[in-house]
Amino acid sequence: MTRHDEIRDRLAAAAEDGDEWDEPVVLMRSELAAVEVADLPDGPRIEVVDRVDAKGMRYISLGGTLRRDGHRMVASIEETGWRKWWPGPLGVDDYHALVLAAVQARASTVGDVAVTDTLDDNVHGVIYEAELTNAGSLRGAYDRALSIRVEINEAAEAVSAGVQDLVERTRQRLAGWGTEPLDALVDRVASQTGTANQRGIALEELTTRLFNTIPGFQATGRVKTSTEEIDIRIQNSSEARRWQKETFLLLAECKNWSGKCGKDEFVLFKTKLANRVGRVGCGFLVSWNGFAETITKEILRGSAGDIVVVALDGADLRNAVRDGNFGERLEQRYEQSVFA
Q1: Which domain of life does the UniProt lineage start with (predicted)?
Q2: Which of 67, 111, 176, 288 counts the highest number of beta carbons within 10 A?
Q3: Is 0.85 topped by the overall pTM?
Q4: Alpha helices in the chain (DSSP H)
Q5: Looking at the predicted structure, is the pLDDT value of residue 269 above 80?
Q6: What is the rounded distance in angstroms from the CA atom of residue 219 to the CA atom of residue 215?
Q7: Average pLDDT value for residue range 52-75
Q8: How far apart are the first and last CA of the chain?
Q9: What is the mean pLDDT of residues 236-254?
Q10: Element (H, E) at 327
Q11: Using the 8-state DSSP alphabet, how is residue 280 labeled?
């Protein structure tokens, strides 16, 4: 029996059972392309797991389920959060009010979504259905559902990021960020003086300020969330065709080490991007002293699929400051990462 046949049998068995409260059929994302929408029975809900880590932790991007309903393919998407444990800088009420407004606006304009429930007690949020048209395979239907979710959340994510970035930029300004000319900052980074933390902060400031020279980019360094510290977060509102197709949020990580950055750091950074459930599709790994030869194959693998990792070294930053062309250099490195 092929894997395709096994999946169809599992879905058929769930359809025969007919209990809408049954647990959904769980499929790995890598299995979806093998199943055509036309082969799906009506009714069974499908939950998609993107990956499972070494500890058995499941990573799920959609936050909902897929099902076939007659000739339609439908996603039920849950955008919810526990009031007590809500981690975002924007309050749980305000965040989900923006999500609800986005669903309602899309329902009246595009017409492919509809609110099915709202929650406002201990769990706060919105549950809505999305119609997935022209999806030949189950993978196509899943990708469409994920795209709709990202588009619906974009306004709430932008406001949330803006609140957090305003706090961080104010803190940085009070700490003296932005007062040193870029040429002097390059010299300080290159000198490799100070503690490891001071060297790291200097490179983060230099990189953040260079990203802010690109029209439509708004970069903030040392962003602290409830679970981690991010070197640089970039809000992408660029009108350039190259960046319009990327996600609203981009991340960068800086390594101002005495040696080269190796493949382990690259893989770890790529995992950080993947863990952001489709909200960050592109990241920039900055290593002042360059990259080890062992990273080459990892860059090739990392450039395929949904996530792009762009590698930048000290020469890129130094020359960009000298020539005033960081945007051009960044696009060149992006092209190399995508088409290597």
Answers
A1: Bacteria
A2: 288
A3: no
A4: 3-17, 92-109, 138-174, 182-191, 196-211, 241-244, 263-274, 295-302, 314-323, 326-339
A5: yes
A6: 11
A7: 84
A8: 38
A9: 88
A10: helix 326-339
A11: E
